[in-house]
Structure of Bifunctional NAD(P)H-hydrate repair enzyme:
Amino acid sequence: MRHAYSVDRVRAAERALMARVPEGALMRRAAAGLAVVCGDLLRRNGRVYGSRVLLLVGSGDNGGDTLYAGAALARRGAGVRAVLTAPDKAHPGGRAALLAAGGRVTGALGDIGTVDLVVDGITGIGGRGGLRPDAERLVREATAGRAPVLAVDLPSGVEADTGQVLGPAVRADATVTFGTYKPGLLIDPAAEHAGALHLVDIGLGPELPERPDLEALQYADVAALLPVPSGESDKYRRGVVGVAAGSERYPGAAVLAVAGALHGGAGAVRYAGPGADAVIARFPETLVHPGRPSEAGRVQAWVVGPGLGDSSASATAVADVLASDVPVLVDADGLRLMDADAVRARTAPTVLTPHAGEAAALLGAARAEVEAGRLGAVRELAARYRATVLLKGSTTLVAQDGDAPVRVNPTGTSWLATAGSGDVLSGLTGSLLAAGLDPRDAASVGAYLHGLAARRSSDGAPVAARDVAEAIPAAWRDVYA
Ligand SMILES: NC(=O)C1=CN([C@@H]2O[C@H](COP(=O)(O)OP(=O)(O)OC[C@H]3O[C@@H](n4cnc5c(N)ncnc54)[C@H](OP(=O)(O)O)[C@@H]3O)[C@@H](O)[C@H]2O)[C@@H](O)CC1
Ligand SMILES: [K+]
């Protein structure tokens, strides 16, 4: 599991640790780790000795880390030049160390044509509100060449706590972060600025609270959560997932949701609605019922919403499913048709799976607002609807009403922005719910497998939703291996 902590909690942990270690030790550890990654990057295209490194140095400790790392590189024979955004405020110890190691400190950028590496140490967790105009100009000019850009702790200009990007910000090829990930490194749009992530251990771990603000499942976490049938399982014990999706106008949504559901670990899929013929033609293993969900037979979880359209029968299907006493996943048209009070009144879990546009409608906000502030939006939705909310997007987030950490999905791919892929995710996640996963696990495991399936079936080319569904077993095997 990858964990991320908010700035306040990082600072509190830092204070506790500082009280136990010699002065300056943390910055030395951070700088040493940073210098190692700088060295690795330089060696990729040559060597450290004789290379040219440009440091962009702000007025806080982020600049201090950068200056000390620059000193280490200068001692190894690199030509290191630091441009200070505020010469009178730059970290005095770091500045002295760089000069003593033979590095140079300048106010002007000079020639960047020969630079091999740009290190961004303008702001870290102390930065607010996008880069200021002077810093922005410096970054624009310094990163115009071909040299890779390495950000220190965070790309300067992004919001550490929310993943928002409120103004101009550094676009890095890689980021070296200290002690723990920060939410902004894992959530778009900020995460897109960070590039490859390197975490440097500075001994902060024992000082951090047990519960992070954000967590990202890794292979092993997902493998441990996958529902695997025991020797005594039969199809009913493995769980039956009900799918209420599709309409005369959109029968394909029913087929795709069922395709996802068939691969999610439930023992059987029951389909209720007007797409029964289309479903059975494609998937004869499905139990179909052409009428309302409440008359379709017993299930352990329902998926409702994909392709329902706007008919009165669709509204009935949503109300029917919400009145059941099993976990329910509501997606797409279901999110529009559902009665908010009925959702809040449910005693069994509810999972809502909006994309940014649907989330905006549920919150009464603009879509752009949701996209810019995804973490706040998903938390707000979970609290307002007393539900588990999976907010789809380039970094899919899962939040639960209460104080559990928000989960961020690391397997997304932009190829998933394709018609019908959400229907597959709904079916898959509903199937995991029926198999007995708790709603937060079902949603985050569903998103993980779905992203992996898309990557596998895409392999760099466009994919159709059907391909994603078909690749779920391969993704499952990947995780399990
Ligand atoms: N926590 C830890 O465990 C450890 C932390 N460590 C390191 O310390 C870093 C945090 O250092 P920090 O607190 O000094 O803040 P930092 O990010 O350098 O920036 C603050 C300065 O930037 C300025 N500034 C602000 N906004 C700006 C903007 N938009 N555009 C331009 N400038 C802006 C603002 O200046 P002022 O307002 O004074 O003009 C302010 O003084 C952390 O990220 C990590 O690298 C490690 O050494 C080891 C352990
Ligand atoms: K930085």
